[in-house]
Amino acid sequence: MVLGFPDTGLVGAIAATYLAEKTGMIEIGFIDSPYFPPVLPFHKHEPRFPVRIMAKDNIVTIFSEIAIPVPLMTSFAKKLVDYLIERNSSGVIMLGGIAVPNRIDLQKPTVYGLGITAKDRDFLKSNDIKLLDEGFLAGVYAQIVKECIKKKVGGVVLLAESYVNYPDPGAAAAVLEAFSKLYGYDIDTQPLLDQAEELKIKLRELMKRTMETLRHAQKGYEQTLPLLYR
Amino acid sequence: MEEFFEIYRRIREEMRRIIEEAEREFEELIPYELREGMLEPLTHAYETPSELVIMLDLPLVRSKDDISVRVDEDTLIVEASIQREFSFDIENPFFRSCTLSKYRKEIPLPENVDIESIRARFRNGVLEIRIPKRRRGLRIEIE
Predict the structure, then answer these.
(1) Number of domains comprising chain B
(2) pLDDT tens digits, residue range A177-190?
(3) For residue range A124-173, what is the model confidence (pLDDT) as tens digits?
(4) What single-letter DSSP state applies at residue A69?
């Protein structure tokens, strides 16, 4: 199961929607909550739920067009991981971005990985994905990883070096390339890179709203070293 | 009959006035700059011990020649033009799309910066402006 929620540089949301489109996934469901903002996107005249579940063959993608409100993150993560267990999912793959100050100088952002179990970490290492060594993960993925640990569900978080508060389709392309390499998909990211500038303008309002949420999601922790004496 | 037409004319005028007023109110929901095809770029600023760094996202701007950066009094003004027009939809009943042709951003500068030494570079659609802080201070002898 692949997850892509609005976060740093909207990397996860851009990557997951692109993945769903390119692999021809169809909508199989949605997630709703009375605590979501009262908004309803519509695409090509059709009203849609902001958090949608898409699927094709043995892969399910969940993405959101709204930032998950901070007070809801814990219960949202619990429900999501329960759903994952219910569907006998083999694991969860979270796509996102990690803010770096020198993004302006990077033609190709590096993708870092966080493996939930030792097996996941070995899997990432054996595929040359650099593991995040010391630090914090903040936001909705942090809550999902916690739930996965509690319920013994495996998975990985793939984070591409990204701008923090500009939509970053280049980072989304990098994370999709890492995903393709790890799971044997062939996803052409060139169209995403070709549309990058238009996407940046179209997604600027979602980026602004996401930043408002991130300000309360302790994202600053991701630039901090954890207190661990050893 | 004449009286009827007079009443009809007044009702029509009143309806037109109400519709125009509603349209104006809806238009006011869209920022003036956007209505003029001007967009405020997404901006990110941070400080280092020696500099203030401001980064502006300028998608669709082709080269540094299309960007102007100037300081007016204590305000940094960035303007950039887009060589091809770009339209995008806005969900407003009376103003459905906007054609973007220019970016503009005004940033008030703090007092302790050296505006003579401002440097800027444009790379991958992002403008980075580095503003050195003016060093003011004196060494204190420890007794």
Answers:
(1) 1
(2) 999 999 999 999 99
(3) 999 999 999 888 898 899 999 999 999 999 999 999 999 988 999 999 99
(4) P
Nearest to A197 among B55, B60, B128 (CB): B60
In a domain, B71, yes or no: yes
Kindly provide the ipTM of the predicted complex, given to two decimals. 0.78
Contact residues for A155 (Cβ-Cβ < 8 A; gap 6+): A91, A92, A93, A94, A115, A116, A120, A145, A148
Give domain status of residue A228, yes or no: no
Q: B126 and A104 in contact by Cβ < 8 A?
A: yes
CB A155 within 8 A of CB A182: no
Across the interface, do B125 and A197 touch by the CB < 8 Å criterion? yes
Q: Which residues from chain B sit within 8 angstroms of residue A105, using beta carbons?
A: 123
* pTM attached to this predicted model: 0.82
Q: Which domain holds residue B112?
A: 31-132
User: CB-based contact (8 Å) between B46 and chain A?
Assistant: yes
Instruction: Give the CATH number for residue B106.
Output: 2.60.40.790
Mean per-residue pLDDT, B23-37? 62
Decide which of B22 and A223 is more confident: B22
Pairing of strands A111-115, A130-131: parallel
What is the structure's pLDDT at B13?
A: 87
- With vertex at residue A37, the alpha carbon angle to CA A36 and CA A43, rounded to the nearest 5 degrees, is 100
Spatial distance between the Cα atoms of B140 and A173, rounded to a whole number of angstroms:
53
